Amino acid sequence: MSAVVAVSAWVLVVACAATALRAARPEGLDGPPRPGPATVALWLLVAVPTVLQVFLPGLLTALRRDWPLVLDGQAWRLVTSLVVQDGGLAGTAFNLFALVVVALAAQEYWSSTRTWVTFWLGGVAANLVVGPVLEPVGAGNSMATLVLGCALVADALLSRARRHAVPAAAVVLACVVVMAVGRDYHALACLLGLAAGALPPHGPRAAGREVARRGVSQRRTRRRGSSDDR
After folding, report:
1. C-beta neighbour count of 40 within 10 angstroms
2. If we measure between CA atoms, which residue out of 42, 179, 172, 184 comes closest to residue 110?
3. What is the share, in percent, of the chain residues with pLDDT greater than 90?
């Protein structure tokens, strides 16, 4: 990646997280989100094999996306390539950082089920798109993470919380344009994410929980008021 595209990738993942968090918590956060069990599990599923490949170099070759081998029947590589890295130290640092940032935002916005489905199916779809011609051999969770991040952005823009999401989402879209102009194949993963986020339902899970809590609180207040009248 060129320097400009590389910088835009870092900015993009932070802006994706900011979009989701702003839409989910327009009143602001009390502090940094605490990772839930599903978020920790997702990160460890990627991080553990990534660390192991340092000591077992053959792991990368065994698990990476290798299109001729995929066509030869090793379709499982479309999944396993998401848990090893081919970008060296810098690429690995970015990928693990990006997954932490985006996954933490996703847990505030979506259910863990939708987060996991979007990450894994998005990563496989991205492999299917870039594998045949653009990047036949490769590995890393970057495309799956970008699919998840951009899906959050599209969902936020289509939700009732869109006015809170627009500023950071505009930064995301600008970064996607930079990546596309720079002919970086990760731009295709971003487009897949935007398409995935267009699927309903739309809106932050946290906002739904807050509305439900308010409804319960109001019903309890009305019941107490009725009891007092009697």
Report:
1. 14
2. 42
3. 83
